[in-house]
Write a structure and sequence with these properties.
The chain is mainly α. Helices cover 75% and strands 0% of the residues. It has helices spanning 2-15, 20-29, 40-59, 62-65, 72-83, 87-103, 110-141, 145-154, 160-175, 181-192. α9 runs antiparallel to α10. The longest helix has 32 residues, at 110-141.
Length: 196
């Protein structure tokens, strides 16, 4: 390639600058720059995704990591990374783990990603149930007396006297700024109902 460039410059020196049609011929002799492969930004995003996966794997307990079918070198490095407690060293070790993970094919971590995504979905569902029960408890503790009657009508299996007592106690605790013992017990009662 250096020889071809030398020839072009020699021709320019001897004959003057090329005309437009000659310039096109000169450009045709040069190979096109390779644009194949992911961009730098794409490679960075993938590296950050791999680092996040490495952090999640290290955060899992050893019992949860075992069934993930990780490559042997990665599983060993996860154990080593868990053992490091110094903040800076732990961060460097995570980066090294992510580097090792990038050397493997994405299929090697498909099981791990699937399990972690399932865990995330399960956490979202639990949070939604928790929020729904909390909203129901607040509705029962509010000033609307019809809410309690409606709830009892919808759930005939609930112990009405116990429910009424908990609601009364929780309201009294709120008025007196006492710890919410009855409100917590009411939450547990609502959580344990089959269709709360």
């Amino acid at each position: 390639m250096a020889h071809a460039d030398h020839a072009v410059w020699k021709r320019i020196r001897d004959n003057g600058p090329p005309r437009i049609d000659e310039a096109a011929a000169v450009d045709e002799t040069r190979p096109e720059p390779e644009t194949e492969g992911p961009s730098r930004s794409q490679r960075r995003r993938e590296a950050l995704d791999t680092l996040a996966l490495a952090e999640q794997l290290v955060a899992l307990t050893p019992a949860r990591t075992a069934p993930l079918e990780l490559p042997e070198d990665i599983a060993e490095e996860v154990v080593r990374t868990r053992a490091i407690t110094a903040r800076g060293a732990h961060k460097r070790q995570l980066a090294y783990l992510a580097k090792l993970m990038r050397r493997h094919d994405d299929d090697a971590f498909a099981t791990a990603r699937a399990v972690l995504n399932h865990d995330r979905q399960h956490q979202r569902e639990e949070a939604a149930v928790f929020q729904r029960i909390e909203a129901l408890r607040e509705k029962l503790l509010g000033d609307d007396k019809d809410a309690l009657t409606t709830f009892i009508d919808q759930h005939p299996q609930v112990d009405r006297q116990h429910l009424n007592a908990l609601v009364r106690q929780a309201r009294a605790e709120r008025k007196r700024d006492k710890p919410p013992r009855a409100a917590r017990e009411l939450f547990r009662l609502l959580r344990d109902l089959p269709s709360a």
